[in-house]
Design brief:
The protein is α+β, with helices and mostly antiparallel strands. The protein contains four helices and twelve strands.
């Protein structure tokens, strides 16, 4: 069940619908993910405590109207304590809506996939989506007829089984290839 040491792992992290609406209204759709924030609370969970390391991949996900949406993918290059990240963040496009009020760590990567709010995980994949801990594998609970009735099993940062990670990766890559709108890496500056 365990992969060879040094094998990149893949994780999901759940974003709220409020955050996704804010990002969509703010023009973040189509922007390539460059940074993620973690912290000590359930609303902004710790990637380090979940075992995320450089080289790993993180898939932000959202549950909306009983459907699971995969929003993109970021490959982690570095994990920086939040208090030491000001210089690094100053070099990156603004992703401040992701910070929350309790960030303690910053995941930085090369440009990831474009952020896309329309990629729905098909019901048959949702039914077999598998997560892996040190002790066991588990499927998502509360899946009925290809719909996710409760998101409790996604709240946090969780490691995907390799097959499930590959399937989510194919969904994200297909969405990017199909023309998820390309957008500038930084928000437009208003003249003035």
């Amino acid at each position: 069940m365990s992969e060879p040491a040094g094998t990149p792992q893949s994780f999901t992290t759940l974003w709220t619908n409020d955050l996704c609406r804010h990002l969509a209204r703010g023009g973040y759709a189509g922007r390539r993910l460059r940074v993620l924030f973690g912290g000590p609370h359930q609303s902004l969970p710790s990637f380090r405590l979940a075992g995320v390391k450089p080289g790993d991949r993180v898939f932000p996900v959202r549950v909306h109207r009983t459907r699971l949406h995969v929003l993109g993918r970021l490959e982690v290059a570095r994990i920086i304590p939040y208090g030491e990240a000001a210089d690094e963040l100053a070099k990156l496009p603004d992703w401040s809506p992701l910070e929350g009020g309790c960030a303690s760590e910053v995941l930085v990567g090369p440009p990831g996939t474009p952020l896309d709010f329309g990629t729905t995980v098909p019901g048959e994949l949702l039914e077999r989506l598998t997560y892996r801990s040190r002790r066991a594998e588990r499927r998502l609970r509360f899946v009925e007829d290809g719909r996710l009735m409760r998101s409790i099993g996604l709240q946090g940062v969780y490691r995907l089984a390799p097959e499930s990670a590959a399937e989510l990766g194919r969904l994200v890559d297909a969405a990017a290839a199909a023309g998820a709108p390309a957008a500038p890496t930084a928000p437009p500056v208003s003249p003035g």
